[in-house]
User: What shape does this take?
Amino acid sequence: MSRALYLAGLGYVAICGIVLLNRRQTAPAVARGGDEPVTPAAPVYGAAGQWFAETKPFCNALEVDVRQQQVPPPSGVEGAGYSAACYALAGKIDLARQTIERLSDRERSVAAGIVFEIGHPVADAGDDRSAGPIMRLVVEYQLDNYMALYHAGASEYMLGESDYARTHLQRFLELYQPDDGWRRNALNMLEHLQ
Assistant: This one.
């Protein structure tokens, strides 16, 4: 009888593991700070996205330079965008900017959009020290990216960078009109900066 119970218990644990793995892979969007749902992780697309998925564990201050030299990103705007995102995640904003600057004026916004998609979950997770510089970089190339403006301003507010916070939050409010949690949070932060 104990062997049957052992097998039943083992089967139960296996089923629970499968359920947890499936649930983790298909995590629903969650609302944070407002009414707009956000995706838990940034999507990756094409060969450049695949490169990023394989490189992401190395997107840290110690390994990013060596990894990108050993396994360079694919050429083109997508490769540059994911490369810049990797540098940005590693906190090497100057290298991310240099990567974007090598592109044509038209392509820079596209690459910055990739950086935004990768950096947005960092901002949504509340990592203000990391998210602020990433979102500020995005805003350099996408002046009307209202979510990058919001996250840059919120990060700067939390870090006591009042001038940057005021500039980014005011621009966010000019662009974003819905009366929801995002707008109310921005107004509240600006009120505390006065």
